Amino acid sequence: MVLELERPMISLRHVSRHYGPIRAVDDVTLDIAAGEFFSLLGPSGCGKTTLLRMLGGFDAPTFGEVFIDGKSMAGVPANRRPTNMVFQNYALFPHLSIRENVGYGLLNRKMTKAAVADRVAQALEMIRLGHLADRWPHQLSGGQRQRVALARALVCEPKVLLLDEPLGALDKKLRAEMQSELRRIQRAVGITFVLVTHDQEEALTLSDRIAIMSAGRPLQIGDPRSLYEAPENRAVAEFIGEMNFFRAEVQAVRPEGTSVRVDGLGDLTVATRGTVAAGSAVTLAMRPEKIVLSWERPPHTDGMIEGRVVSETYLGDRCQYGVAVANHAAPIRVVTQNNMPGAGRQQDRPVWLDYPREALLLLTM
Amino acid sequence: MRMGSRPLFVFAVLYVIFLYAPAMLLPLFSFNDATMIAFPLNGFTLRWYEGLLGNAQLMAAFKNSLVVALCAAAISTCIGICGAKAVTHRKLRGGKAAVGLIMLPLVVPSIVVGISLLMLARHVLDIELSLWTVGIGHVLLCVPFSMLVMMSRLEGFDRSLEEASLDLGQSRWGTFRRVTLPLALPGIVASFLLSFTVSLDEFVLAFFLAGNETTLPIYIFSQLRFPSRLPDVLALGSCILLGSCLLVLFAEWLRRRGIQSAFSRGI
Description:
heterodimer; A: alpha+beta; Rossmann fold; CATH 2.40.50.140; 2 domains; six-stranded mixed sheet; five-stranded antiparallel sheet; 8 helices; 22% helix; elongated; B: mainly alpha; MetI-like fold
């Protein structure tokens, strides 16, 4: 699980945080590279925020050690760490103007007043809010406050920027805008970003790498593509995107692949992943959009699945169908683009499903 | 006019009269040119007010009260800030029990507190009764008010603001000075004013704990025995009434003016 990085900006070594009998973070070891946009993704209560707070110095590990830029952070309080945080609710100081909020982190620096003013003006320019410098936080919209919080943290030029669900309170359109803004700023400043989010789309869009967290541990760490295309276990496959699952039994393990008998799909050979033994029960997973749906009977139906449409969900640009097939309990979910002729047909029609063999993923856990 | 609002309006007017009419008698008779408190009024005079300034005993008592009230308010507000910060911001073991104990003077009759403090001062510690003992008694009485005001202020306080300040490089003290204190300022002012008024008109504890120097309520009470002095007391009462009105107006003005302009300085 530990990637060998040239020079990790952040290193966690067997970090645990226990609250009484609860293990909020449970023996986490991982490295984050300098300049990386790293996301901690998971449902609420998975320990991602606790982990972030331990990086920021607001919480201390019960066991294990945190290193930032090669230095141990044990006993180093938040105000002496090379990190800055963007809080979930922005935490702008209500009694200070926007300019004073942004300049707050420079108060104790040995800088001339002019230099401070310069830095603040630059930061406000970067978030395109220079014209609002003399307003108060309560006069700004949610998106503007979010950007001010970002500028306030970045003006300190931290080595690591920590973001705690920074876009959670914004509406969908604004969130998309802020995502590209975040990415743009991260590329521009080159600082290591660590983002906590429960929004998988946000994590996939923004991150270089993602750790999917559950019960205080990372289930899998990887870049967005590998997490989506090759989840290592069922929990990850379920958490990211939509997935069809098939129960299967291993028939034989051969060099060219594993032969499996799959409920609803029949006998197949798929790529071997993990350790499998003949006779063991496994799960096969397949993304709904990998499946090709035909409304008319194709000339060759070898290897295709015949089924019946039982549900139809219109998603604007896409359509999701539930297709009932023999010998498989749940309907298979299929997503098609709405540019296909025949989309939006009525229910109960017979359909034929085709799929590339490599779309089937063997999961042992 | 909405249905039913007229009876409510009448009720409200009657209620306000009930509340304030007795107090309004004070200024009315304080300008009356007669020693007897009775209608019809006799004519306008300011001599009772002039008499106030010439009354050395009264001015001494007033000064004593002011000193005791200012000190008690300042001390209890400081204790209130620290105590409220402790019980609202930290997972304090026994915090709830501590709050309960601190609030006790609110429910224990002051006569009981007065007697026990008197016994403590005279028989256990053997210290002379003075304004100091009154002041200490008043602090005991004012701390619950300060705590209540400060706790409600600090409980509505977003803890991440202090974390943000730490995160941005400020020390704990810098955070307290630059973030906690300015944001708690309306509470501090409220706590100070409340403690000040509680101490200023407190009678029972002062009665038990004052030595030779009296406070204003005790002086007023002692004067009631002499009918000829009554107009003086009325004039004094009117002054106090005016003073407390000004105090309330000042507090409200401060609140509306907000903490922003008062405490933000250029960076």
